[in-house]
Hints:
By secondary structure, this protein is mainly β.
Amino acid sequence: MNDRTMILTESEARTRWCPVRIGAYAGPAAVNCLGSACAMWRWTEPLRLLCRVPDKCVPYAEPALPEPARPDGVPSSWKWTPAMDPQDDTGGVWLEPVSEAQARMRGYCGLAGKP
């Protein structure tokens, strides 16, 4: 498998050279992959945010719930998102930021077809 057909995170891909951009060589950084900014970039999966319910369920309260104690293993960057529905017995969830979910996503250069 060559560099063009590897499945990579976008940050990993940006360290690889691009076979299309190499034709207009203007220095090493100018020929690196553009990742999702390129029309050839293909994602292997849809964006999925990770979440975790609190260790102890918090009752629904209007207009917003106080943030419960952060469970072990929940990164400090995750935000508490209160439930919007009184029927939600968790009271809310700890939600991963979109930027972290995007950094986990993997894709590939579609120029060479599917890997």
